[in-house]
Amino acid sequence: MRNIGASHIRILDRIALHKSGISFNKLAEELEGHISRVSLSRGLRELCNMGYVKSVRDVTHRQRKIFRLNDDLSLLVEKTKLRLLDRKLTKRRASRIVLKYISLYGELTKQNKSQFLQDYLKHRLAMNFLNLLEMLR
Question: How confident is the chain (137 residues) per 10-residue block, as mean pLDDT?
């Protein structure tokens, strides 16, 4: 099993923003300047082969494929979303959120033996932690 790379993370993060899926061309546009089309194609193929991304034909356009996260990754993304609901972020609230994420990480790593998913989970939680720190300024 291949380790998670920076391009895999960018691809997964971008697909995660589109619950109903995203086409290759749209994904390439959004990642322009970060990942070449060749690297994107290779990364998507690897993610599809590993089962983390699903590829389905677009019903409105025969040649177009739509890419979506698999159910496990969609659930992981949903559980790690940072939700503040317009409430003021205090240090106490931020520490509770961090503790919740640590607990979630422990739960999910026990359930999931895939190193790839564990690495992606670490990335998601680290990004949320950095966002919390920025909000506390």
Answer: 80 94 95 94 94 88 88 88 72 88 86 81 90 82
H or E element in which residue 54 lies: strand 53-58
Domain with CATH 1.10.10.10 in the chain: 6-69
pTM of the shown model: 0.84
CATH code for the structural domain at 6-69: 1.10.10.10
**Nearest one of 90, 67, 94, 86 to 13, comparing CA atoms:** 67
Instruction: Give the separation between CA 55 and CA 53, rounded to whole angstroms.
Output: 7
Interatomic CA distance for residues 32 and 36, integer angstroms: 7
Q: What distance in Å separates the CA atoms of residue 51 and residue 70, rounded to the nearest whole number?
A: 7
